[in-house]
TrEMBL record:
Transmembrane stretches, start-end: 67-86, 98-114, 164-183, 190-209, 229-254
Annotated organism of origin: Biomphalaria glabrata
Domain G-protein coupled receptors family 2 profile: 61-274
Protein origin, superkingdom: Eukaryota
Main localization, broad class: membrane
Name recorded for this polypeptide: G-protein coupled receptors family 2 profile 2 domain-containing protein
PANTHER family, per database record: G-PROTEIN COUPLED RECEPTORS FAMILY 2 PROFILE 2 DOMAIN-CONTAINING PROTEIN, PDF RECEPTOR-LIKE PROTEIN-RELATED
GO molecular function, one term: G protein-coupled peptide receptor activity
Coiled coil: none
Length: 274
């Protein structure tokens, strides 16, 4: 059985299938497939004007972020090579930078892989085919396959990992400024564990929910927003926490500057007064 996915626009609408008197699904004579009616899920004629404009904007946005990821990938690869090649740069502090660079390299690679293997944001190219202009269908009755779900699960893991290492960078800088003495090597071990294993605390529950409750398409759509916030909430929290770190670091540095160099500060004030 083939599943016609067409060009769906209204994911909140309903599709229908007709069960015949013999207990079998209605068979479309023109396409020679078991047919599902997705007409209510497609855009109306009034929205046809906006489809072209929307497609142009989507393509431009994709080109922009692909260019950004490409530049970032080249720069990060060069930085990783430099930090590994020169032994003088081998220190606990640069280990954090190296892990951060590697996380963002993986994020760029997964982004390119996702965009090149995915067809109309529904399925991998080997699992779907175009049987008419702008019309697509699955090649199996089970719909989306595990390869595509693994791809998006890995992509979400890399997103969480890069956010985790951004948090570790901010926290490490905060520790350097506020704490006088601490063990860098022991800190690096815990940071490595947090950066690469910590995201699993959020990813595993999301995978379980998607596999048991909301196993839709390629796990790239999010009908229930609350489930998607399992992944987004830690990323938003990291942005807020890092901003708090930034404010506190500026406050501590300003306080230390005022306390340690009052004569110089008075000298500058005297010059400004003149």
């Amino acid at each position: 059985m083939w599943l016609d996915v067409g060009l769906l626009s209204l994911f909140a609408a309903y599709a229908t299938k007709t069960c015949m008197q013999n207990g079998e699904w209605f068979h479309h004579s023109e396409f020679n497939v078991t047919w599902s009616n997705y007409s209510s899920c497609r855009a109306t004629e009034n929205s046809s004007v906006h489809e072209g404009v929307s497609e142009v904007h989507v393509n431009r946005i994709q080109t922009m972020y692909s260019l950004g990821y490409g530049i970032s990938l080249i720069a990060l690869t060069v930085a990783i090579f430099i930090m590994i090649y020169f032994r003088r740069l081998h220190c606990p502090r640069n280990t954090i930078h190296l892990n951060l660079f590697m996380a963002f390299v993986l994020r760029a690679l997964l982004s390119f892989l996702k965009d090149n293997l995915h067809v109309i944001h529904i399925e991998l190219f080997q699992e779907i085919e175009e049987f008419a202009p702008g019309r697509y269908r699955y090649q199996s009755p089970s719909g989306s396959h595990w390869q595509c779900k693994i791809l998006f699960t890995t992509f979400h893991y890399v997103q969480l990992t890069s956010s985790a290492w951004v948090f570790i960078e901010g926290f490490y800088l905060y520790i350097l400024v506020t704490v006088t003495i601490f063990s860098e090597r022991r800190y690096i071990r815990w940071c490595t564990l947090l950066g690469w294993a910590g995201p699993l605390l959020f990813l595993v529950p999301w995978v379980i929910i998607r596999a048991t409750i909301e196993d839709d398409l390629c796990w790239n759509t999010h009908p229930t927003t609350g489930y998607f916030w399992i992944l987004k909430c830690p990323q938003v929290a990291i942005v807020v926490i890092n901003f708090v770190f930034f404010i506190n670091i500026v406050r501590v540095l300003f306080t230390k500057l005022v306390r340690t160099a009052p004569p110089r500060a008075r000298k500058y004030r005297y010059r400004w007064g003149q």
